[in-house]
Design goal:
heterodimer; A: 395 residues; alpha/beta; Peroxisomal Thiolase, Chain A, domain 1; eleven-stranded mixed sheet; 12 helices; 16 strands; B: alpha+beta; eight-stranded mixed sheet; 8 strands; 28% helix
């Protein structure tokens, strides 16, 4: 069960698009400045309730005509993030060959937003709207032909969907595929789009905060839903200031939606990441927490981190910037962790002050310029699915 | 010499589709003598009744075939890594939620958490007290191929054994728009080559597992190899009931048929690709003689 040690994989490029901005540069700037991307839900999402969300704001142009059947809010967000990677992808294709680059993406919503509209249309008119197809509009894998087509990649391609840990799992899968030898590089990441089902689903669970979420704060009142995309290019060899060291995965085996109260599964995932990388806890400099802003998550995760790393561990929660992007959250927060290493800072956990005194770790409430040798990004999900992605500075 | 990392050892099998409760029933049906009573609901005894009553047909099928593959492979349900492949996942639960969205009612929290793609993975891990990292994936009609690659990746990384579960419900209207096919599920227990014999349980197995009959033939040492090639290289025959042919995961049952036969064969894992495209194939060695 304990995974073998695998070689670190350089992270040679990354791209982000979310409520903080349409480009990676805007998002890095917002992260430095402690500027949240949360706000009221824009009308085009069609929410039937008021909610504070992390919505992608601005123009999302239609996909090229050859992808018209797959043109959804989700694939447009993915295409927006992909557009920034055209140069590194061209270089990677020239180096490895297009059939030697895998695509492993995480999503939890897929095109469910399209199905909401289609189902309502069917109720009114007795027929599905023109252009809707469950295969190309709804399916979780419908994003693959768009991303593989736009990126001109032909290696193994699949979608992992484990709710809110989906796009953290993709890093584990890609590292294994490269180790296995079926590819030399992988485009990994996650994408989710705002829709009724997730916002009203979490409302049904009574965990939505009406105002901007404040993970780890004594004044926190729940989560906000967000949307966005995060993509990373992993290569067997290459120039990258940061490397994927190891990924730890576990299941709570406890409850479908509630974390184990002491964070047992979270702790196992972090331990497995350390073992996989051959690192001691004191060689990790900060942790990007799952940090959703629910009391249950924050206290279980805080307890797990404190138990493994001690109360001095620096912990940052970034969902106060983006909201909980569900299937895109994992890759977004891995990308934030990579950016923290590259740019030499740990962002403020926006909204965390005053920190809940029951959280027994050092939550960063202010921006801190500091060098990070290695850091963990945690993602936890329904079904008790836990993933800890460990990345480190290239020596 | 480094062993070929794409060589896998198939050590256990699970099958469920309406009328065929397990691999033995499927094998008998295949030769045209099925006298099994048509069972329309999987037993899914792995799940305690309290959990099971909340689950969909998809999750029950997945739990049932996972348990069959684990038991027939002599594995411990607490320490296998299970990978779930499905194209539309919990589509019927999702459709219920789409209906509820048109009302002002609050969404059912149970239906909401049961609509995720890793629903079966969550329930099975809870029932089996499995702290491993299960996953759920989809790649459309390449789901079987990509699921096997994901398992090969796990085994190559030392995460052994792995079980691939493929499960697909029928598509409900109106989303189906006329696509009609029956539900099916299959599971394949996989180990690294050269790792023989049952896994010694580290903890007491879930009691209900012990009541599941092992598949009555020995598959230990059934070696198979993933490789790329043309679908025209496939030798495995297609003998699926008409009701299952259009199920996007139907190829999982073609693979089951190949595993149940003794002779060597090649299964096209991506038969939807054009013949001149390179797709993933699975080559099965002939079943070794079982000494008794």
């Amino acid at each position: 069960m304990l995974a073998a040690r695998m070689r670190p994989v350089p992270i040679t490029a990354l791209s982000l698009c979310n409520g903080m901005g349409l480009t990676t540069a805007e998002i890095v700037e917002a992260l430095r400045a402690g500027r949240s991307g949360l706000g009221p839900c824009p009308p085009e999402i069609g929410l039937t309730m008021a909610a504070t969300v992390g919505a992608v704001r601005g123009e999302l142009p239609p996909l090229p005509a050859r992808f018209a059947s797959h043109d959804t809010r989700l694939t447009r967000i993915a295409a927006r993030a992909l557009a920034e990677l055209s140069a590194p992808l061209a270089r990677a294709r020239a180096r490895w060959g297009r059939d030697r680059i895998a695509v492993v993406l995480g999503t939890s919503t897929g095109g469910i937003g399209e199905s909401e509209l289609a189902f309502a249309h069917h109720r009114r008119h007795g027929a599905l709207p023109e252009g809707y197809s469950v295969e190309t509009s709804h399916a979780l894998d419908a994003v693959l032909p768009v991303v593989c087509g736009l990126a001109d990649l032909a290696g193994p391609a699949y979608v992992l969907s484990t709710a809110c840990s989906s796009s953290a799992k993709v890093f584990a899968a890609a590292q294994r595929l490269i180790h296995l030898g079926v590819c030399d590089a992988a485009l990994v990441g996650g994408v989710d789009s705002l829709c009724q089902l997730t916002v009203r689903g979490f409302a049904g669970l009574e965990v939505l905060s009406p105002v901007a979420c404040r993970p780890f704060s004594s004044e926190r009142a729940g989560i906000n839903i967000g949307e966005g995309a995060a993509l990373c290019l992993l290569e067997r060899e290459g120039e990258g200031a940061t490397r994927l060291l190891a990924v730890g995965e576990s299941s709570d085996a406890f409850h479908m939606t509630s974390p184990h109260p002491e964070g047992l599964g979270a702790r196992i995932a972090m331990e497995r990441a350390l073992i996989g990388a051959g690192l001691r806890p004191d060689e990790v400099d900060h942790i990007n927490a799952h940090g959703t802003g629910t009391r249950q998550n924050d206290s279980a995760e805080g307890a797990a981190i404190a138990a493994l790393f001690g109360p001095g561990m620096r912990v940052v929660a970034t969902k106060g910037y983006t909201g909980h992007q569900l299937g895109a959250a994992g890759a977004t927060e891995v990308a934030f962790t990579v950016l923290a290493i590259q740019h030499g800072f740990v962002p403020a956990s926006v909204g965390a002050a005053p920190v809940d005194p029951e959280i027994a770790v050092r939550v960063t409430t202010e921006y801190a310029a500091m060098r990070t040798r290695a850091a963990i990004s945690n993602s936890f999900a329904f079904g008790g699915s836990n993933v800890s992605v460990l990345v480190g500075a290239t020596p | 010499m480094t062993p070929d990392p794409l060589v896998l050892q198939l050590c256990g099998l699970g099958v469920w589709t309406p009328g065929f409760a397990d691999a033995a029933a499927w094998a008998r049906g295949e030769v045209g003598r099925s006298d099994e009573p048509a069972s329309q609901t999987p037993r899914a005894e792995l799940l305690p009744p309290m959990l099971r009553r909340r689950t969909s047909l998809l999750t029950r099928m997945a739990a049932e075939v996972a348990a069959q593959a684990i038991a027939s492979g002599g594995l411990d349900p607490a320490i296998v890594t299970v990978i779930y492949g499905s194209v539309y996942g919990e589509i019927r639960t999702t459709l219920d939620l789409l209906g509820a969205l048109l009302t002002t009612d609050a969404l059912s929290p149970t239906k909401f958490h049961n609509s995720v793609h890793n629903t079966a993975g969550g329930y099975v891990s809870i029932a089996a007290r499995n702290h491993g990292g299960n996953a759920a994936l989809t790649a459309g009609r390449s789901t079987l191929a990509m699921g096997l690659l994901e398992c090969a990746g796990l085994l190559g990384a030392g995460d052994d054994p792995a079980v691939l579960v493929i499960a697909e419900e029928s598509l409900p209207e109106p989303l189906a728009a006329g696509r009609v096919y029956g539900p099916l599920a299959a599971a394949f227990a996989l180990r690294r080559p050269g790792v023989a014999g049952p896994v010694v349980p580290s903890v007491q197995p879930v009691p209900s597992i012990q009541s599941i009959q092992a598949v009555p033939w020995n598959m230990s040492g059934r070696t198979c190899r993933l490789r790329q090639g043309s679908r025209d290289e496939a030798t495995a025959a297609h003998r699926l009931p008409a009701s299952l042919v259009d199920n996007p995961c139907a190829q999982a049952l073609v693979l089951v048929d190949a595993v149940l036969r003794a002779e060597a064969s090649v299964v096209a894992l991506e038969p939807q690709l054009p013949a001149d495209a390179r797709g993933w194939l699975l080559e099965l060695d002939a079943r070794p003689e079982v000494s008794t």
